[in-house]
Design goal:
Distance between the termini: 30 Å
Number of strands: 42
Shape: globular
CATH architecture of the largest domain: Sandwich
Helix content: 10-25%
CATH topology of the largest domain: Immunoglobulin-like
Oligomer: single chain
Radius of gyration: 26 Å
Length: 761
């Protein structure tokens, strides 16, 4: 291992790399900078062990640059109610949220709408009742009500009154109402016994991993180990809620948390119980291993024991809690971290000494505690669309827009890890001075090294003129990496002198002047200086423009003297490097102990023998049809309760109104004497089964299966909806997909699917 730590890397409070190392490794200072390398001098009994004591807390965290986000971008957008002529500002953050809520007023619950309006400064009728959870406030809004008349009046809004109290601190605190929770503690047991529905609690708790004695860490420390190491993580659940005893905190798990937005959790709150999941690992899922169904509540201690096999994949992994039903809110609240297993670039002679940069991407929404003037985590309800999502602060390595001094630049590694709970990012690198999007080369993903470095294909985008002007509605946006939640990508990029931005972009214009946009994954703002429109003399963002962009994710700054070679020269360098990679072909007969750690494994699970038969012999072939609001599954997978409902509906309407397959689920069918479709207001289905109800697939341990994943989800006839796909414990190989490189000859753990994705797992 010769892991040279780059300029963009998670740091602790002392400014040092925030890493926890196996005893087989050591961090040393060299002419190249700080390097993690093998510890050949350690011959003791603890060799090849990573031991760390980690506290899980709800303590405040420091987000460097949070005050910059508020002062340069957020405050101006949230307080901009009027244009200069006195009309409503529809291009501001305020205007975006206001318009979205008004448009959804009659289609969502009143308390949900009111929660969002209070977030943007509403102070009129009903503003003190957003946590009310009764029949009246759970009902959908009426556009003839007195409340609707009041929420439309702009004079009832004063966001400046809130944000003028801001202290300017970078400290973020949890957001919850302990008094409300205490009132609901007795109702938790009542809910279990009688089905009563206690009031909303509306919490947004921070969750952080911190090395014991070193304070909180957002994200958690980077764990670095090698195949064959033993990992022993000694956890203590110290999640606290002020003014509550340990027993009351534990009882809080029984209170239904129906908070709207990113911190929401279906079912019982689970806010104080947690566990640990090593995402993507091939390790023991039982007992105190990578056990996603274990549970540890406030005050408990436990040790997670993970033994990495010698043939474990090398590359980028991550960890997070996986206790249901609190996964969403705990990951959103901050609980996640990066794991580096081995050093793939050490197997590529040309790049073994390049700096390893790491960009952990996480998001949080903010509000203000008016009593203290401190920023607090907010469970803002993500409505979609760039304007409403502009409320979100996107962080890299726990900072807002970190500036990395990449020194001499040249070839550098950039590992991307999307640790947001429910956001996609289209990541690219743009050189500020030239405006050029830099070429991206991929050498690994999801903890597995590619046997050959590959060019990035780019993101699949749809023309804004698709329905009226173009026959082919879609085009690949080059040199862009689409990052689904949980995805990791290991990249090589050549950084020239000047400033290079790490950006997230969702639109581009092709050579013919046609505009394309990638909004199938959700509407997010383009995060770059170009989208912001304002820069200072140094090329850095100079301020905010309402309705545009908070600026890029991060900056690389390179000293003079490093020119950008042509695409052809960069390609040649990659080709030369590829020729020197030592590759081991993995066959069905290859045993774990036969893996060569000096080589890069190459596997083709779809390989055929000379007789046209699969060498890997999948036991079963399955088809999974994903759909939103439409039934498309094969007949032998029909969901019987669904078919019964359809039969009842068809019998009650005229022939021309009867339901047919591949039709959108009609409102009458969904809501005919029922508030939802089997309990789901906006159902996603797999083979006509409402997800996540029921056991869809039971597979046999030790066998291989071939799955075809088909995405039928659409918002309109010409617009697809992207889906992430992930299997716990078991990685898989993709044969072909509309969003991925073909013939990668490696495994992966998270896919982003548009249409069809054949995989073997």
């Amino acid at each position: 291992m010769n892991f040279v730590i780059g300029s963009l890397f998670p740091k602790n409070k002392d400014g040092e790399p925030n890493v926890q190392l196996s005893s087989s490794l050591e961090l040393i200072s060299t002419e190249s900078g700080l390097v993690i390398q093998a510890n050949d001098n350690d011959k003791g009994k603890n060799r090849k062990k990573l031991v760390s004591k980690i506290d899980i807390t709800s303590n405040p965290v420091e987000i460097k640059g949070a005050s910059k986000f508020v002062s340069d971008w957020f405050k101006e957008g949230i307080t901009s109610i009027y244009n200069e002529d006195g009309s409503k500002d529809t291009t501001s953050i305020f205007g975006g949220v206001y318009n979205t809520v008004m448009n959804k007023w009659a289609s969502q619950s009143i308390n949900r709408s009111m929660k969002a309006l209070v977030m943007i400064g509403y102070q009129g009728l009903g503003s003190d009742q957003v946590a009310t959870n009764n029949k009246e406030w759970n009902a959908k809004g009426s556009k003839t009500s007195d409340l609707y008349k009041e929420v439309q009046k702009l004079e009832n809004y004063d966001p400046s009154k809130i944000w003028d109290q801001y202290s300017g601190s970078d400290t973020i605190i949890s957001n919850y109402d302990a008094d409300n929770l205490l009132q609901n503690l007795p109702a938790g047991q009542a809910e279990l016994e009688s089905g009563t529905n206690p009031n909303l609690w509306l919490p947004a708790l921070l969750y952080s991993y911190g090395v014991r004695g070193e304070g909180t860490s957002y994200p958690g420390p980077v764990l670095v180990a090698t195949p064959g190491d033993r990992i022993r993580l000694k956890f203590q659940n110290d999640i606290r809620i002020d003014d509550l005893s340990d027993e009351e905190i534990q009882q809080a798990t029984l209170v239904k948390n129906s908070t709207y937005g990113n911190a929401a959790s279906d079912g019982l709150g689970g806010t104080t119980s947690t566990n640990y999941h090593f995402h993507g690992s091939h390790t023991n899922p039982n007992g105190f291993g990578d056990n996603v169904v274990s549970r540890f509540t406030t005050g408990q201690k436990w040790t997670t024991k993970i033994d990495l096999p010698e043939d474990h994949g090398q590359g980028s992994y991550w960890y997070h809690p996986h206790y249901h039903p609190s996964v969403n809110q705990q990951v959103y609240g901050g609980a996640s971290g990066f794991i580096q297993i081995g050093d793939p670039l050490s197997k590529i002679s040309k790049f073994k000494d390049v700096p390893r940069n790491l960009a952990i991407i996480k998001m949080m929404d903010l509000s203000l505690d008016e009593d203290s003037g401190q920023l607090q985590l907010e469970a803002f309800d993500n409505y979609g669309g760039p304007l409403t999502n502009a409320m979100t602060m996107v962080t890299v390595n726990g900072e807002f827009q970190p500036q990395a001094q990449a020194q001499s630049g040249g070839w550098q590694s950039v590992s991307l890890s999307n640790q947001s709970n429910q956001a996609f990012y289209n990541v690219s690198l743009i050189h500020q001075e030239s405006g050029e999007t830099l070429p991206i080369y991929i050498y690994g993903e999801d903890g597995h090294q590619f046997p050959q470095i590959r060019k990035a294909v780019g993101a699949l985008s749809q023309s804004t003129d698709a329905e009226t002007k173009l026959v082919n509605a879609y085009k690949q946006q080059p040199n862009v990496i689409s990052m689904a939640p949980g995805k990791r990508m290991d990249l090589l990029v050549y950084l020239p002198e000047g400033n290079t931005e790490l950006v997230s972009q969702y639109s581009f214009t092709d050579d013919e002047g046609v505009n394309f946009i990638t909004d199938n994954m959700g509407g997010y703002p383009n995060l770059s200086s170009a989208a912001n429109g304002l820069t200072n003399a140094d090329g850095q963002p100079a301020g905010a423009v309402s309705g545009q962009s908070a600026g890029p994710l991060a900056f690389f700054q390179v000293n003079d003297g490093t020119a950008l070679p042509s695409q052809k020269k960069l390609d040649r360098q990659i080709e030369k490097a590829n020729k020197k990679i030592q590759i081991q072909d993995i066959k069905p007969s290859t045993k774990p102990e036969e893996y060569d750690n000096d080589s890069v494994p190459s596997v083709n699970l779809f390989e055929m023998n000379d007789y046209g038969r699969s060498r890997w012999k999948p036991l079963r072939k399955r088809i999974f049809n994903w759909a939103k609001g439409v039934l498309v599954g094969p007949e032998d997978e029909y969901d019987l309760p669904t078919q019964e409902r359809i039969s009842q509906y068809n019998a009650s309407v005229d022939v021309e109104d009867q339901y047919e397959r591949y039709d959108k689920l009609k409102g009458a069918l969904i809501n005919n004497n029922n508030p939802s479709w089997f309990g789901y207001d906006n159902p996603f289905l797999i083979n006509d089964h409402v997800f996540p109800n029921g056991s869809i697939t039971i597979a046999q341990i030790g066998t291989m299966e071939e799955w075809t994943l088909r995405n039928w989800s659409v918002n309109s006839p010409s617009k697809y909806i992207g889906h992430p796909f992930h299997i716990h414990i078991n990685d898989y190989q993709t044969k072909n997909s509309d969003t991925e490189l073909d013939q990668k000859r490696s495994l992966e753990a998270v896919s982003y699917t548009h249409l069809t994705l054949p995989t073997k797992a």
